[in-house]
Write a structure and sequence with these properties.
single chain; 276 residues; alpha+beta; Helix Hairpins; SH3 type barrels; Alpha-Beta Plaits; 5-stranded antiparallel β-sheet; 3-stranded antiparallel β-sheet; 7 helices; 10 strands
């Protein structure tokens, strides 16, 4: 065997592949450093934007993993390894995982939208996805709600965001919509004065916006007044209950008749708001 030709050949191979290996190592080290730096920059920007910590952590880690995968593929390509098959395998695996977890991914996407747009926050009383209650926790996949009768309901975020959401705690004030029926033989002017006096004596009723009192309709067996005072959100049900009771007492004292059975009163479905 002629060793005189082997040594130069080894030196040639070492010089050629050694440079490739060195370049691949440099690409990996520098690429990983850049990926980590970009991850930290994105996390700082999202934190300054008051984005939820869960989303900050997830987006940061996802960015780092995606960039690191790109760096590894670039390093392998520098070594002369064909990476087309790797990319195809990764794409196929991603598609399979996406199809298997499409429900969870939909909930995750809805959770991200909830964190970004914030239609509600913990402590708000909301109605959505066919249930109503106080928001206890909003996770990235689900939202936990406590009902007025103290039940805990876990709602997938995809279902919650796919329906109308009514947030009863979003505003500082709410209007109490009431319908009070009186007999056709009663003095409507007197009825109006009694209702105005009741509202004026209740400290929870706001002066601005001013309450609305007017004849709503002539019913089958009653003249129906629309009584619409404004209250602070936390006083809604307390004011509604007390005003209703006071109206009955005052009408009895003043001889105002309340037809029986009275027509259905159009009110919001009773919801015990836990903001009190």
């Amino acid at each position: 065997m002629d060793f005189s030709n082997i040594l130069p050949r080894l030196q040639e191979l070492l010089a050629f592949y050694g440079l490739k290996i060195l370049a691949a190592i440099v690409i990996f080290i520098v690429g990983r450093w850049i990926a980590r730096a970009l991850k930290n920059v994105i996390k700082r920007m999202m934190t300054k934007g008051n984005v939820d910590d869960i989303l900050v952590s997830f987006v940061g880690n996802l960015t780092y993993i995606a960039l690191l995968a790109f760096v590894i593929i670039a390093a392998l390509n520098q070594l002369g390894i064909q990476t087309t098959s790797f990319i195809a395998v990764i794409g196929a695996a991603g598609l399979a995982v996406g199809l298997a977890l499409q429900g969870s991914l939909a909930n995750f996407a809805a959770g991200v939208l909830m964190i970004i747009f914030r239609p509600f926050k913990a402590g708000d009383y909301i109605e959505g996805a066919g249930v109503a209650g106080v928001v206890e926790k909003a996770h990235i996949f689900t939202t936990q709600i406590k009902t007025p009768d103290n039940k805990t309901i876990i709602i997938p975020n995809g279902k919650l965001m796919g329906d109308n959401i009514t947030n009863y705690s979003a505003k500082d004030t709410r209007r109490v919509d009431m319908v009070i029926g009186v007999g056709y033989g009663d003095d409507l002017k007197k009825v109006r004065e009694i209702l105005e006096d009741i509202l004026a004596k209740d400290d929870r009723i706001l002066e601005d916006p001013a309450p609305t009192i007017g004849v709503l309709e002539l019913g089958d067996n009653s003249v129906n007044f629309a009584v619409r005072p404004w209250v602070k959100t936390q006083d809604y049900w307390g004011a509604y209950f007390d005003v209703t009771e006071t109206v009955k007492r005052r009408f009895d004292e003043e001889g105002i008749s309340i037809p029986y059975p009275q027509r259905d009163v159009h009110l919001y479905e009773y919801k015990e708001e836990a903001v009190q």
